[in-house]
Structure formats: C-alpha cells, structure tokens
Known about the structure:
heterodimer, A: alpha+beta, MetI-like fold, 2 domains, four-stranded antiparallel sheet, 58% helix, B: mainly alpha, 16 helices
Amino acid sequence: MAEVSGALSGSPLPATGAVREAELRYYTASQFQLMWWKFRKHRLALIGMAILGVFVFIAAFAEFLAPYSSTARTVGYLHGRPQTLHFIDAEGQFHLRPFTYALSAAMDPTTFLLETKEDTSTPWPVRFFVKGDEYAFWGLIKFDLHLFGVEEGHLHLLGTDQLGRDILSRLFYATRTSLTIGVVGLFISFFLGLIIGGISGFFGGWVDDAIQRFIEFIRSIPTLPLWMSLAAALPKEWSPEQVYFTITILLGLLGWTHLARRVRGKLLSLREEDFIVAARIGGSTDARIIARHMLPSFLSYIIVDLSISFPYMILAETSLSFIGLGLRAPVISWGVLLQDAQNVAAIALYPWLFTPVAFVIVSVMAFSFVGDGMRDAADPYSR
Amino acid sequence: MVKYLLQRLAIMIVMLAALSFIVFVTIELPPGDYADRRALSLRSAGIQFTQEDVVSLRHTLGLDRPWYERYVTWIGNIVLHGNFGVSMTVHLPVTEVLGQRVGLTVMLALATITLTYGLAIPIGIYSAIRQYSVGDYLATMVGYFGMATPSFMLALILLYISVMVFDNSVGGLFSAEYAEAPWSWGKFVDLLRHLWVPALVLGLAGTAFEIRTMRATLLDEKSKLYVTAARAKGLPEWKLMLKYPVRVALNPIASTIGWELTAIIAGAPLVSFVLALPDTGPLFLRALLDQDTYLSGAILLMYATLTILGTFLSDVLLAVLDPRIRYGEKI
C-alpha cells in the first residue's frame, strides 16, 4: 500500500491535504484492512476480542498460571472459602508483597458447620514463580514453576471444592477443555456446512430441495433434548476420553445447518455474477472458480457465522456436562465444575462453587460482541 | 388458504413420522435390550433369573423380531392405543408415570411464549420510538446479558439470589398447601403465581432477541414515506404508529414463533431440573441417566411433537397476517 500511495502522490492530482490523503488510503486499502478498520470502530467487539485473548492465554498456559495442579488436594481445607489477599497487616502496616493469613477451623456448636478464622499472627506471603506441583508442560517438558503461589501454607483465591482441590486452578484447566471442545466442534460444523451447503447450491434441483427440507426438519426439533438422549445412549463403560471424543462430534453436528444454508445461498447468488461468468469465459476450471473467485467473496460471512455459533457449542457442552450426560471426571470442563453447584444447598453453603458461571457468561458475551463486530465488518464496502 | 393449510398439514405429518423414527433410534441405541436390563435388575435384587428366562421374556415382548417390525409395533401402540411402553425403573406404564406432568410442561411453554411476546412487543416499540433513551440502552444491556446466559444458569443465579438475599427459594410450582391438593381454582391461581419465575427465566433469551428484531424493523419502517404521509394528514402519533409501522414490524416476529417455541422446549428440561419443578423436565433427565429408554423416548417424542405443532401454528398465524404467504408467493 505504501508503494501505491507513494506513486500516486507524485501524480498531478489536485490533492487537498488530509481529506484526499484519507480517501486515498481508503481506496488503496486491501479487503482485510478495510474489514479491520470497520471492526475497530465497534468498541464492544474490541473489548470482546481482548477478553477472548485472555481466555486463550489461560487455556494455553493453564499449568503455569494455575497455582496448583487440577488434582492436588489441601486435605485440611475441604469446601474452604476463598482466601483474601491482604496488603495491610494487623498492625496497620502496608506491605508491597500481598499475603494471606493462616486459617484455623472450628466447628460451630449450633450449626455444625466448619467456621474458619484468619490467624493474623502467621502471614503467608504470596510470591511469583514459586516451585509447586510438578507438571509436564504441554505434555512435553517437565516443570514445577507456577506463576504465583505460597511457599508455606496454602493459597485458594476462589476456595476449594469438597475434596479440597483449588477451584481457580481447576477453572483454568476447564477453560482449556471447554474452549478446545468448542473449536473442534466448530471445525466439524464448518466442514459439514461447507460440504452439504456446497452440494445443495452446486447441484440445485431435487437434491437441493431434499437437503433444504432436511435442514428445516432438523431446525424444528428441539436439538438439546435430542442430543441429551443420544449422549445418554453412550455405553457407560466407555472411558472418559472416548466420551470426550464422541461429545465433540455430537456438538459438531449441532451447528452446521445454519452454515449450510449460508453457503448454499451465496453459491446460488454468486453463480450468476458477472465476474464469475467472466472467469468462466476466460477458461478457468470449476475448481479455480470456486477457490479463487467464489470462496474469497463469501469467506467473511462464513467466519461470522462460525463466531456466532461458537457460544452454542460452549453452552451445549456446559448443559450436557452439568446434568452429567456430557464429559466426566477426570476430564474437567466448565460444565463438569458446575455439577457441584446443582442444588440449593450447595449454593447456600458454598457459594464459591458458583464461580464457573461467571467464566461461561463472560466468554459467551465476549463471543457475541466479537460476532456483532464481525457481522458489521463482513461487508467492508458499505460505508 | 385451504390449499396452503393442507400443504402445511401434510408437511407436519411427514415430519412427525420422521421424528418418531429418530426417537425410536434413541430408544434402541443403548447396548443390550429391555430383557437384558430387566434380568440385570432382577438378579441384582437377588431373584433367580436364568438365561432361558431372558430368551423367553425377549420372545414374549417381541424383542427378537427385526427392528422394522418392532418400530411398527411401537408406533402402532402409541397411535392406536396411546401405549408408550413400560418405564423400566418404576415398572409402570409410561403414561401413568407422566400423568399430569405433561400438562404442566405445556402450561410452562405457553406461559413462556405469552410472557416473551407480551414483554418483547411493547419494549421493542418503546425502544424504537425513544431510540437512544435511557430505557432503550437499558433494554439493550439486559438483552445482551439475556442472550449470553443460558437459561439454566439464569435459573441457578436466580436461586442463588433468592437464597442468599431473600432467604427463600424460588423453586417449585405450588405452595405447600396446594402441592398434593386436587385441581381447583385456588390451585390454578397458585400455579400462575409461581409460574412466572421459570417462564421469565426460560424466556429471557427469546425476549431479548425479539426486542432487538422488533426495534430494528420498526426503526426501518418508521422513517418510510407512508408514515410521513399519514402524519401529514394529521393522524395522532400513537394511532399512526400502532396502525401502520407496528403492524408491518409484527411480521418478522410472528414468523419466529416456531423457533422460539423450539428453543423454549429445548431449554425447559434443564430449567425445570434446576428449579425443581414438578413437570416432565426432571423426569426426563432422570430417565436419561438411568437409561429408562421408553420413558425418555416418550418425553422426547412429546417435546418434538410440541415444537412441530408450534411450527405449524406459527405458519398458520403468518398466513393470516400476511396474504402474500397465503397465496404462495415468495417474499
């Protein structure tokens, strides 16, 4: 682009300063740049993008970011409430290094619930890069450094579950599972939608009719109960990995109808466009026309549809796992974590078991913001 | 009109047939059959049950016949005798287990649809007429939250708030004094008093979506020339809005009633489960977890029939609203 505008600035155009410059920039920009500019104008979409970035970061470096491994237990601290970070100690002195206090538990004589009290005489300082549970980073390198943690005592910023496992750490691991399962499901949807929609739009006629009726049929049945029935039919003796794999495929089968419709519609309308006819007369092969001329002109719409259907994957996974038909321990996902918060008693006594909900809502909202921004950016030529 | 209705009716019947087949597949999918599972449960209870008994049970139940014969028997029993088979966990006919729970599910779905449209249409109109007002922004924000939060989580959040703040659970559909009582006017009123909570939870996502649709269409319509013309002729503003642009904007909303109902039915089991409603939801989940396939199959069939019926009704409604559809034109 720099090359083009350099060549043009030397031309005898009656350039009138900044306005002309901006217009030139607009007309010489590539399609991707135009999309990015348009996307940038959508504030919420940018915020959503940043949030998703954080989630991806957490998913990628879960072992390192989490203070504990997903199975490590603090045996003396079952169903422990979240520990608070302090900067000011009991004498009112400020410390730059945050710390948390040792806890003493005592049974409440009337309710028989464990009541924890902070023991202000023993502070547990929180440090960066502490040695902790050993893990194999991405299954490759053995490592035992964690981003933060305590050297003495324990640190559970979001509390612990009934076995004394750190909820924050488990949430980080769950983020990895939930996001990857969504992405893989999305890829399956993507290929199904592309192929079925492609066949429908390319052949037309009765094939098209049949496929369209089939899609209408699928859309008019309540998918979640159907998927629940299918998931319930999985043999009970399957290993968690087999279940994980099958559930991913089931999720992939959820979202393709929308995409297939989009692909078909675009193919049908593009077939008659002048530039496609021109390419055909110019002697391009069908494969080249599809790959070089048709695909780029509707790829952006496909990406939009994908970003919109991602939340459905996450929600479906969460719902299935929540009621115990989806993923099972030892696999950890947001839905698996939420199983602990199924009933009123758990919510009333241990409200911190509820934190995964925040992760789900924030991620889904971020995705719908990004989806909105992408929808606006998908057609960058309308100003 | 009659031709159009007959056509939709034919499509509905074909869909129901296809659907019953899919439900049959989910019933047949788990490994082993009813005879195996019955033998297992009897043996675990300490009752002598030999392999010959299994074979003879299988024969009396007709489970050794090919699948298409079994399908025909199964669907024939349902259509002709209203017999959905026997629940494996409680050993009662499925219809008896379901009882009045089906009615409660239908009530819940109807209440949700009513609440969704009852809220979405006025709020949408308000948002469009008072664009960028505080109320409009508020509706948009609630809308984003509503669309991002799956209904069962909303139910959990509501439970959490009601327990933590009000020290009182919002679960259930009846007050204690009516829970076991026979149906009466008092019980019905009590039901309505409880029903709005799950209906609101279940309908929030749909309401948010319909508000957005209503607002967008109305914004498009209200700047059109026919509105200016009517205003120039001196029609009062509210009458003008309700009579012309709002009527046009109702169309896209009415056309989605079918999908809305599908979404509601899909979300209902989980919400009922979380809020412990005495309808089919918790029963469905229990049946799925226990692989009580005749029971879960019957409930699944009922859910799907409800949505297909809903789609049919929304098609009819749309034809009433829009003559172009009645006469088979493409829009």
